[in-house]
Amino acid sequence: MSSLTFTSPPPAPVRPAAGPGFRLCDTTGLSVCLTAQRFIKLNAVSAVVFLLLGGIAAILLALTRWQFVHLLRVDWFYRVLTFHGLNMLIFWILFFEVAVLYFACTVPLKARLFSPKVAWLSFGMMLTGAVTVNTVILQGKADVLLTSYLPLLAHPAFYLGIILVAVGTLIGVFNFFATLYTAKRDRTYEGSLPLVTFGALAAAIIAVVTLLHGAIVMIPTFTYSMGWTAQPDPMWYRMIWWGLGHQSQQVNVCAMVAIWYLIANLSTGAKPVNETVCRGAFVLYILFINLASAHHLLVDPGVGSAWKIWNTSYAMYLAVLASMIHGFTVPASVEVAMREKGYIKGLFGWVTSAPWRNPAFSGFVLSVLIFGFIGGITGVTLGTQQINIIAHNTLRITGHFHATVVGGTTLAFMAVTYYVIPLIFRRDFIWRGLARVQPWLFGGGILLVSLGMSFAGSMGVPRRSYDIEPAGIFGAAAHLFLGVMGMGAIIAVIGLLLFVVLCVGTILFGEKNAGRPMADWGTAQAMVGTKAGSLAEDHWAMKGTMALTAVFLACFAVYYFANWKALADVWPVK
Amino acid sequence: MNNETKDPLLKRLMDNTWLLLVLGVLIPLLSYTLWGWVELGMVQPATLP
Amino acid sequence: MSLAIPERGWYRAPEGAEKLWIGLALLWCFVLSLMMPFWHFRGKQNSRGEAYAVEPAAFLARTEQFVAANKVGELNGTPIVEPAPGGEAYLIGRMWAWYPVLKLRQGETYRVHLSSLDLQHGFSLQPLNMNFQVLPGYDHVLTLTPTSKGEFTIVCNEFCGIGHDKMIGKILVE
């Protein structure tokens, strides 16, 4: 135990693996806390319901912005846009994250969830809040979009609902920390946290910062909407709101990366090449990634260049360094595991013989690629202080975060669900052939959405706009890319609906697997005569990963400097 | 426990949930929120020349 | 495995390819970090956030005075106003119009004051694709030098209610 622990309890024996309140997993042999299992189920199911609602909204929006179809009426467009933003970015993600946290603090540590009462309180508040917000939006009393920028004003119940969701999540995060504390106190484990738990810890810490900002900004806005206090300053609102809005997406990044490590392990037996490097990257996230909220205020009045440059750089891009490290260590761990199993042909023999038929694996790989190549590169570039001038509030921004939050996080969450349902709900998936296609449909669709939006945005097409025709300046190319976005959205939403049908169908009708291992999706098998750990001392074994990351760095540099060139071509301004 | 106090600083930080929590909250709160708040507080009245 | 408690000796320095990649990535991060201060001092396009606190009524009054003193014509009912080269120009965003139309000269530098009378708006100058945020209560000053001639369109790209997509303005450059 470290010398910096909170208390120094008397030594106690390590608990037996499965005491009362636990069950042993028939597939992994891990002991599962039954209380945690119940709340993982509750939160995950709610998450999928909100994903479905947000997905229905998504297709309505895409088919409206695709001007050839232009489906919705103007008032309903902004209403559905508000609905889509909250259900996708807040409810789906937060409910799923609470499920991930409850898993990460109990199962790997053989620990008991701190308190079922606290978990009920958290779940009840979140659900009440989410239902309230959705009701108010659909009644047409909160057409203010996700950001609800003051002086736009919604019905007080809108803000109250968001406060309930935020505080409820914070209570769930408290349950996570309390479980870590009691697990350490009761010595359910010895030594350091497992990597997946450590990643979840990073997510939880960032969630605390996020939800604090949510409280700071939403409480005075709520009291203002009730007529009790004066209107908060709109610029102050923007600054604090983005402490909620952007940082909540950094929670996703951490949870997503933790899931990458988890799926890499479950599907190929990969383990980190160097634990210190992976953990170090998470520490950089914890310390610096939250400064990136400044990306939303780069062309705003009132905050100066020094504040903008320092914060937009996440303190010298240390959080970008962290993402680039994960972008190397995750594929490297898979490559080393595959090579140790005997798949050593050429640079990419380990790629072609990977378990592609496993939807968790394919979803995870697509998530890494879309997040890194599209989301990461555009994010750093658009979030560069000066380059933001040619990107702010255009569809380029939306194109960026559909690659990170949807192609990255949502796809990773979907991928891990292919293990969560068999292992936690203990039912094997129905329609396994369709399940194998689902990540490709969703990932491919989102890729088109993201590219369509990005290209339309670089032609100046604004985000959050009902109709681009009144401007009278957008030509055939802009319409073409909006069409690409629309087509992509149709494919992605089919993938999303398929996912929901597969999950719900499996939970209701899937074959029970209690008492035996789950039906294997396809895991990488070791060849005869190979030995796990045989490459542990070969620090240059990941040749394919080196090639891939070199390509990545080259793409990054080309896109980055092309944008500086584009910026240099517009009017001088300061 | 004596030999464990010699752990490198970075490892001790990685194993210390609570210190990470405190730093993770403090750094963005100071760098982004408080500094930004001060910047907004220093906005001067317009002269509209 | 990532779910298991790591072995006791897990703490060790990066080696081999990992070490190389961390070094390369760190180097790239230095390039990214230095580009912004470099452009701040040597580049021509910056957003310094120069702004002053202003009451919407005062901003409207000053803009009306600016229009009355410098009006040179009308475009679809909106006054066209030509500020003195090197001088101050005022531009209002409100639901759902930009007021007035500015007429500028190529190569001259102007201090353009942007503010809103009601909600937040987005100043998006097309087809250049230059974007700035416009807030009520803030006089956001852009020191702007048009370097190309023609008719430029201001699109609002911050949601401001039902007529948002029809909030279109013009800047003319000769």
Question: Would you kindly provide a written description of the structure presented here, covering whatever features stand out?
Answer:
The complex is a heterotrimer of chains A (574), B (49) and C (174). Chain A is an all-alpha fold. Chain A has helices at residues 34-65, 74-106, 116-138, 156-185, 195-225, 234-245, 247-268, 275-288, 305-312, 314-340, 349-352, 359-382, 395-425, 432-458, 476-509, 543-568; strands spanning 22-24, 31-33, 427-428, 511-512. In chain A, the strands form 2 sheets. A two-stranded antiparallel sheet of chain A has the order 1-2. In chain A, helix 5 (195-225) runs parallel beside helix 8 and helix 10 (314-340) packs antiparallel against helix 12 (359-382). The longest helix of chain A has 34 residues, at 476-509. The radius of gyration of chain A is 23 Å and the shape is globular. The longest helix of chain B is centred in the middle third of the chain and has 25 residues, at 17-41. With 174 residues, chain C is of the alpha+beta class. Chain C has helices at residues 16-42, 56-70, and strands at residues 51-53, 71-75, 78-81, 88-94, 97-99, 101-104, 110-116, 121-126, 130-134, 138-144, 150-156, 168-173. In chain C, the strands form 2 sheets. A 7-stranded mixed beta sheet of chain C has the order 2-3-6-12-11-8-9. Chain C is elongated, with a radius of gyration of 24 Å. The B-C interface holds B 7-8, 10-11, 14, 43-49 and C 11, 51-54, 58-59, 62, 88, 90, 113, 138-139.
